[in-house]
Amino acid sequence: MQLSAASLLPVNATLAVLLVALLLAAAGIAAVFHLAPDGGRGSRVRQILLAGVRATVQLAAVSAVIVWVVRSFLATLAFLLLMLAVAVRTAGRRITADRSWWTAAIPIASPVLPVVAALLLTELVPFKGIVLIPVTGILIGGALTATSLAGRRALDALDHRHGEVEAGLVLGLSERDARLEIARPSASDALIPGLDQTRTVGLVTLPGAFVGMLLGGAGPLSAGAVQLFVLIALMAVQALATALTLELIARGRLHRPGPR
Fold this sequence. Notes:
The chain is an all-alpha fold. The chain has helices at about 5-10, 15-30, 45-70, 75-95, 105-120, 130-160, 160-170, 175-185, 190-200, 210-215, 220-250.
């Protein structure tokens, strides 16, 4: 039986009150337990509240323009470029506060572009904004997450284990290889969320693409095939994003302010 979106989550005053309550709860818990998303910089409460407000404004804006965007080739292309630019800015600034943040474009764009191109060339995905935008958005989001996690973990490891990097240099390793040996194990943790999601799909969670297709009237087999593709494509994108981020950090192209 096909369900309407309104029957699942009606947009009314009750929803608004619940959203505000959950956002305040998240901020309150972070404050009480001293949880800092950025490693201790800035106000944890302010960051969480601001994230919730931004999400509300951004989704409202996208809802207002998406119908027009998907009707135009140029508008669709511009929207995809905007998505990529925001992802690069978000991941880059999450990793570092200096000018090297823009190099996050390499691990984010490099894995996503070939996958999207292959989908279009094989006609598995039509060049229609209503399909291309969400598919590309999922892949960009996966690359963003992997880049942010790998970058932060790798740079944290290099900061905390700087002496081991120096020891590697004394033993004759190049600076790249010495940094790589220390940063690689920590950066590899960026793959864990994607692996856990893929391993437990259907048992712990029913991801959005699968549920959305079922609610839209697609059969279970088609919905499962699409979700399987999304999960495997995400693993490929995140693996390459992590590898490229690690390489950039090992070569000193992506770094934090101060001595490296």
